[in-house]
Design brief:
alpha+beta; three-stranded antiparallel sheet; 3 helices; about 20% helix; globular
């Protein structure tokens, strides 16, 4: 019997975007579990919420519901649909921007990149 470790739990995930014309539900009541070494695909037509789900897992936006990693310090690899580098920053500064925004940039982070 092979035991699978549940590494990511998503429960009742919701994301609504608001603007002056009203609101748009981008993700509504998504729940899923992803096990260790499991490969999943999120498919669907343009605008159905695939990228939004990935943005929420990567903590790039706020949401309702829960996203829980059952692993300490998980490593997340994620490439946006189009490259979004800031031309006035170096490649390293672009790579460290997420840590800087979250106020988690440290001398150790910078040393690790060398």
């Amino acid at each position: 019997m092979i035991l699978m470790n549940n590494v990511l739990e998503i429960n009742s995930l919701n994301k609504t975007y608001y603007n002056i014309n009203g609101s748009t539900k981008a993700v509504e009541d998504i729940s899923l579990n992803i096990n260790d070494s499991e490969f999943i695909s999120i498919i669907g037509p343009s605008g159905c919420g695939k990228s939004t789900i990935l943005n929420l897992i990567a903590e790039l936006d706020d949401y309702e519901g829960t996203i829980k990693f059952n692993k300490e310090n998980p490593t997340i690899g994620y490439m946006l649909q189009s490259d979004s580098l800031f031309p006035w920053l170096t490649i390293l500064e672009n790579a460290l921007l997420g840590l800087k925004i979250k106020k988690k940039l440290s001398k150790e982070n910078i040393e690790y990149t060398k």
